[in-house]
Design brief:
alpha/beta; 177 residues; Rossmann fold; seven-stranded mixed β-sheet; 31% helix; two-stranded antiparallel ribbon; 9 strands
Length: 177
């Protein structure tokens, strides 16, 4: 299947890798623009852009995922489905509807609990015993589309956000495939 992948941080890498390993054609990657980072404030590319560049996958980096020029670029990639993992912007309905099979999202919580940003950190802050990963069909609302699949994962007593986040990212990639 021709996949357009949307993602930015390290959390998205296992899903991007799994799609390629399973033989899906990665038509392109949409990620956030390079941003200043570090003490020198030099431009740094996202983890997803780094991997896509290494794998020679076309990369789009719009400031905002809208506008006719951007939509024409996406149409030119001819995706059958979009897979979104921690992209960092809310996508408009016309963007979600471009691929014939729509757009799905991997979210780092058991929706509808902890919709929105930083669900992994919030699950720890709120003292949850467990969290998980949700694969959902995307629609106009924030993390509000139909749930396709969920996997629960316990939160260890001494766990920090980064460890849980990496575990959930691997779990999400497995659930996606």
């Amino acid at each position: 299947m021709r996949v357009l992948f949307w993602g930015t941080p390290e959390f998205a890498l296992p899903a991007l890798r799994a799609l390629g390993e399973e033989g899906h054609h990665l038509a392109g990657v949409v990620t956030q623009p390079d941003r200043p980072a570090g003490r020198g404030r030099s431009l740094a590319m996202s983890a997803v852009k780094r991997m896509a560049t290494e794998e020679m996958i076309p990369v789009l980096q719009p400031e905002r995922a809208l506008g006719e020029d951007f939509m024409a670029q996406v149409r030119g990639l001819d995706p059958e489905i979009s897979v979104v993992v921690a992209y960092g912007q809310i996508l408009r309905p016309e963007v979600l509807a471009l691929p014939p099979h729509g757009s799905i999202n991997i979210h780092g919580s058991l929706l509808p609990e902890l919709r929105g940003a930083a669900p992994v950190q919030w699950s720890i802050i709120r003292g949850f015993d467990a969290t998980g990963v949700t694969i959902m069909q995307m629609e106009a609302g924030l993390d509000s589309g139909p749930i396709l699949f969920q996997v629960e994962e316990p939160i260890r007593a001494d766990e920090v956000g980064r460890d849980l986040m990496m575990r959930l990212s691997e779990l999400g990639a497995e659930a996606l495939i």
